[in-house]
Write a structure and sequence with these properties.
307 residues, alpha/beta, Arginase, Chain A, eight-stranded parallel sheet
Length: 307
């Protein structure tokens, strides 16, 4: 594993849904030892602290929750994410998944400046492929991939700097997809591996296929890891629980394969709600997974006491 300068950017985004708590996520990762885990692997870590949303006034909307605040967060993360990408490997500490409109958008702009394609690996129970017009809940953490792919209807948001063609998007771990999202995704070339596919074929094959796409095109790779990618039995600290998620071993295999590929250039850790967690259990799991992605091997992994 190459040594990196890792830039931690706290993004306490809590506007993407109505139930509060994700604003505590960035500090929970710090308390759980994320910086120390990265430094123990030989990486240099710079913690930029927690960002704030830009002032934004997108007007009232009859259905969309937190529109102005989410627009402000997108603008701030687009700017600060590009600055961090020029200096090292950005790791965005969330915060709900609406933050990815800014974090991934920033990396798309960075990749475009380098003349390279950006690929997006979305590890999540949900496709988040809605638009502001199709979302039934009005929760903007469910429109992130739609924005990043350049779907219409995002006029209130900063323009997506370099929309990501769906063939460069991999969605792994899906198990809760709305009909409108399913219809839209079926028209694309996105790589999709829902949990039935994983049950039947394992998680290695779809991830290896996606990584092969990235390597063939000389792409940069952004990984967006949602807590609800994991089964809630092992990661309960999330609002959008969906039974039947990835096991701990499947998740670590993903991270180890990503590490081995050497392709990952940025990372989101999102949807941690410490208010719903059990004694920091979910934060600890997410820190362990991030450490695996950054080079920790099984013999390096400390045994955690459950007492």
């Amino acid at each position: 594993m190459d040594r990196h300068t890792i830039i931690l950017l706290g993004a306490p985004v809590d506007s993407g849904k109505r139930r509060r708590g994700c604003l505590m996520g960035p500090d929970a990762y710090r308390v759980a030892g994320l910086r120390e885990a990265f430094e123990s692997l030989g990486h240099r870590v710079v913690d930029r602290g927690n960002l704030q949303p830009d002032p934004a006034e997108a007007g009232d909307h009859p259905r969309l929750h937190g529109l102005s605040e989410t627009v402000g967060w997108t603008a701030a993360l687009l700017r600060e994410g590009q600055r961090a990408a020029a200096e090292g490997m950005p790791v965005f500490l969330g915060g709900d998944h609406a933050l990815s409109m800014g974090s991934v958008g920033a990396m798309a702009a960075h990749a475009a400046r380098l003349g390279r394609p950006l690929f997006l690996l979305w590890l999540d129970a949900h496709a988040d492929f809605h638009t502001p017009e199709t979302t039934e809940t009005g929760h903007l953490h469910g429109v992130s991939v739609g924005y990043l792919a350049g779907l219409p209807g995002f006029g209130a948001f900063p323009p997506m700097p370099a929309p990501i063609p769906p063939r460069r998007i991999g969605l792994i771990g899906l198990r809760s997809v709305d009909p409108a999202e399913r219809t839209a995704l079926e028209r694309t070339e996105a790589l999709i591996a829902d949990m039935r596919h994983i049950d039947e074929h394992g998680i290695r094959a779809p991830l290896a296929a996606f990584l092969a796409r990235v390597e063939e095109e000389g792409g940069l790779l952004h990984v967006s890891l949602d807590v609800d990618f994991l089964d809630p039995a092992i990661a309960p600290g999330v609002v959008t629980t969906s039974p039947g998620g990835a096991t701990l071993r499947e998740a670590h295999l993903c991270m180890e394969m990503l590490c081995d590929s050497g392709l990952v250039t940025s990372l989101d850790l999102v949807e941690l709600n410490p208010f719903l967690d059990e004694r920091g259990r979910t934060a600890g799991v997410m820190v362990d997974l991030a450490a695996s992605l950054m080079g920790r091997r099984i013999f390096d992994r400390p045994t955690r006491s459950l007492a």
